[in-house]
Every structure is written in structure tokens, then in C-alpha cells.
Amino acid sequence: MNRRFVILGGAAAAVLQTGAIANMVNDHVQMVQTGTEVILATGFVDPRDFFRGHYVTLNLRISRIPKSSVEVIGDIEQYFYGSVYVSLGAKDADGFAVPDKIYRDLPANPQAPILRADYISLMGDDYRLHFSFDRYFAPKLRAEELEKLRRERRLGVIMSVQPDGTGIITGVTIDGERIYDEPLF
Amino acid sequence: MSQRKHSALSAAIADWSARHIIDEGTAARLRDDLGPAPKGWSFGNFLIVAGVLALIAAVFSFVSANWDEMSKLSRLILLMGTLIALWGGAIWSGLRGHTYWREGFILLACAMFGANIMLVAQIYHMQGLAEDAVFLWLIGTVIAGALTRSSFAATGGLVLLYVWAIFASANASQRFAIDFGLTITELVIFAVGVAILVAIGIWSKSKLIWHLVPFSLFVVFAISRTLRPMRVDFDDLVKTMIAEFFVICLLGIILNLALSYNSLKWRLAGRTMAAYLVIFSVMCIEFVRLPIAFGPFGRNWPFSILELSVLVLVVAAAAYFNWSKSKARYDILIIAGLAMLFAIFQLGFIERPNLIHTIIFSALSLGMTVWAIRLAWRHDLRVLRWFGMFWFVVVILSIYGTTIGTLLDAAMFFLGAGVTLLVSAFVSTRIKSEAIS
What we know:
The complex is a heterodimer.
Chain A: H1 3-34, E1 36-41, E2 44-45, E3 48-49, E4 53-58, E5 64-66, E6 71-73, E7 79-80, E8 84-87, E9 90-91, E10 97-98, E11 101-103, E12 114-117, E13 119-123, E14 126-130, E15 135-137, H2 140-148, E16 155-161, E17 167-174, E18 177-181
Parallel strand pairs in A: 6-11
Antiparallel strand pairs in A: 1-16, 2-4, 3-4, 4-15, 5-14, 7-13, 8-11, 8-12, 9-10, 13-14, 16-17, 17-18
Chain B: H1 3-18, H2 24-34, H3 43-64, H4 72-95, H5 99-123, H6 130-148, H7 151-175, H8 184-203, H9 208-226, H10 234-261, H11 266-293, H12 301-322, H13 328-349, H14 355-378, H15 382-402, H16 407-436
């Protein structure tokens, strides 16, 4: 193996892998800076990710939506394993965003922030939705602290929502107060 | 030509020449045709790879532990700086002609790339499926393998392809009502991935990758056998795969023993049998270690002791009868002695193991595996050598798995093991060079 190949091959691999990581960070920063902020009501459960360490599972209130409380636009079957879009056009008394419409397809000019759900099922009188953002990574002590918060506390997760329905977690609120606000760097 | 074949041909030429079957001129021409002996894998090479693997485990343990004291920017600089430094190490060792150090650095850099993906996702609460993160890791590793013509990166890529397939099948079976774990598209990606990685393996003259290729069939077989529609328990999947793998290994061993029973080369059959018995013994030690590492003993531990004791006695008997005139009996007796020590520890002294016990057992298990590999190298037992290297990875992963919760301790253990192995490799290389000069 000649010297030129060793140097160029190694350098190209280093640039490629470092560039991929830098691109991940850059995409995230761009999305946080350009998104619309909403706060969703949630609860927390503390498990552990094999690769990424401790986190709390978000038990989002909007994962279970009473059928009578939303307007469904488009044809959605009982079990629909594709993306659906939830319009967060209302707020409850605690200031948490509340869904008012579920779209089968991404609306062209939405009047409110739109969140994309991975799939939906109808169980009894409720729509059950699965969102890709279902965990908040935290150090072990903070994860345990969040898990132990009593149910009567009003827990919220701050999201930055993109026009395409992507949601990014940027912080946590307890009783309306921002407790953990995630800095970009 | 492999080192083994070269050695056999050289010995044959020397023998023919000594018995005057061929004259000295013909022997010299044959030796010229044969050329110099190729550089094969040595025990020192294994120590380097094992050391790098232990450091990889240390990196994973450390980065999975909590490190919230640092700012996000500092974490990013540390992650990317380490990645670039590892690639720098690969280029530096490549320019100095240290092939195995270069391969080790490349493997470590690819592992660090994966750690970076997971940690950046953790730092920024990036969501998504684990299979997507593993896929990005796989792509980065495959391209790096192609750019650097690296045998280890290609082999690591194949392992990542298996991990991706398992994650993809587990996720697909949860979300879709399908019997088979992989979709047609994913199966095509899997097959294309194997083909690309084998091509890189051929280009980089990797023998290691060929040992993993048949495992591809096993991965597909295991996924298709174990997944149920709609719901799958990931732990059950992994346990079933491991159990099936051992059943396949056992069948292979029994078949091999049955075939060698009628062989005319009784001495070889005896060596092979003894090698398999060492393999069993080392495996049993790990099976004893696992319930200890998981805390209070489960229902299986008396059987482990029984199994272990019987196997240790059989290994000792094999050592006495088959290798009574060989130096190898000392190696086997050391393994048997350590195994017995291990069993005594478990039987007599430890009811509720603590961290120190876990560390002692882990160190013993790793130590015995390394000793078995050393034995394999000294006596040219290929089966035992490949098993030993495979088992070393299994032990490393199982220690990582059983120490989740005390990750910093696990990181320190792996760091210590990795540094010790690499220092041993460095010292053994120096001693060898001085002995030659």
C-alpha cells in the first residue's frame, strides 16, 4: 500500500465521518432556530437506552386524543401505519397546546403548528398516536428526579416545530416554569 | 499462500532433500518458487486487536455514562477531536508500516464514529429509530473500509449489518403485522450489503470476513424463526439467537468429533478433542460468571457447577492421556486449575456478589480466554484460535451488558484491560525483535 493511498484514504474517511457528525448537529441547530415553539403536556418514566444512556419516556397527553375532540380531514382507517399530521390550534387552561384537527396529508397552509405522528390507531373512543419524539435524555439523577415528580405537578415538554411537522425537544417545564432549557452549544 | 501451507511445503522439501528423494539443486529451485514465508497472524497481533476491542468497550461505557458536567460545545469538541485523532493514528501507523496497528486504529475510529452518532443524538434529544442510527454508522464504516482498503473495517461493517438487521426486524414486527422480520426492501439491502462488504474483504485480502459470511445465513434464519406478528420481546429474541447459535456450534463440534473418530491420525484427533474440551471449559466459565454478575444466584447455578466440574476433570484427563508427552499439558492444567478456582469461589465464598467479586470473575474469565488463545497459537490449533478470538469478543460484550448501571466502573475495567493488552503486545514485540537481533 503506497504512502499516498494511506494518507488520502485515511484523510478522506476522517473528513467523511466528521462531516456526517457535523451535518447532524448543523441540521438540528437550523431546525431549532427556525421552528415554532409549542409546549405539550406530558408525564415521565425513567428507563435506559442501550446506546444513549438514561432518558425519561415522554407520556405525551396528545398521544391519546378523544375522537369527539378533533376534526379528521382525509380518510384514516382503524389502523393506519403511515404519517398523519396533528394541528395544535388550541390551548388548554394550563397553556399546553391541544390538538384540534388530524390531517391525513400535510396541509398546504396550516393556521397552527403541525406535528407529524408516525402512525395512528383507533381504540375505543380514542385515537392513539405514536410520535418519533418519545424520550428526553437526561443524566441519571435528573431522569430519576423527573420520574419522581408527582402526578399533580403540571409537566410540559417544550418543542420546536418545523413546517414539515418535525418536532425537536428544546426543554422541560414544571408548573409553567422553564426548568431545563437546552442550550444549542 | 497461507503461513500454514508455506510451512507444510517447506517441511516437505526439507524432508525430501534429507532423504535424497530430490537433489540439492531441485530443492533450492523449489524453495525459490515457494518464496519467503508470509507474515501470518501472531499472538502479538491478537493482543493488539484484543486491546483495541477492550478500548472500544471502554469508550462505549464511558460515553454512555453521565457526563453532564461538560458544556455541549466541549462534548462536541471532545467527540470530534477524538475521531480525528484516531484517524491521525491510522495514517501515522500506516506510514510507518505497522499494518495491524493501522487496522486497529481504523476499527477504533469507526467505533468512535458510532459513539459520536449516539452521543450527538443524546446531547440534542434527537429522536428516531435505533436502526436508522445504526444504518448511518454502517454506511460511514463501509465507505471508510473502501477508502482505506481496511479488512477490519469491512468485518466491523458486516457485524453492524447484522445489528441493523436485528433492529430493523424487531421494529418492523412491532409496527407491522408480518411474520418475517425483514421487509423485502430490507432483505435486498442486507444481501447487497453482504455482497459489498465481501467485495471490500476480497480487495483487502481479509480472511476474517469469510468466517463471518456464513453467519449472515444464521442471522436471517434466526430472525425468521423467532419473530411473531405484531409483538416481539427484544430480550427473548437475543436469548433465542444465542441459544440457537450454541446449538449450531455444538452440532458442528459433535460432527467434527464423529468425523475425526475414524481418522487414521489418532494424534490429530486427540489434539482436536482436547482443543474442543478447552473450548467447552472456557465457555462454561462464562456461563458460570453470568449469573454471578447478575446478582443473587438463579436456579441454574448448581448445574453450572456440575457441568464445570465434570468438564474440568475431563480436560485434565485429556491433558494427561493425550498430551502426556507434550508441553501443552501445562497450559491445559493451568486452565483447569483456574476453572477449579473459579468453581471453588462460587461454591464456597460468595452468596451475594459485590463489585469486587464481579471484577475478579470478569478478569478471570477474560484471562482464561486469552490463555486459551495463547495455547492455540503455541500448538497451532486453528479451531481453538478462532473460537478464542470470537469468545473474547463475547466475554467483552457480556461484561459490558452485565455491568450496565456501573458504567464508569466498566469503562475503567475495559480501559485497564485494553491498556494492559496493548502494553503486553508492545513488550512482546520488543522482546521478539531483540531476540532476533
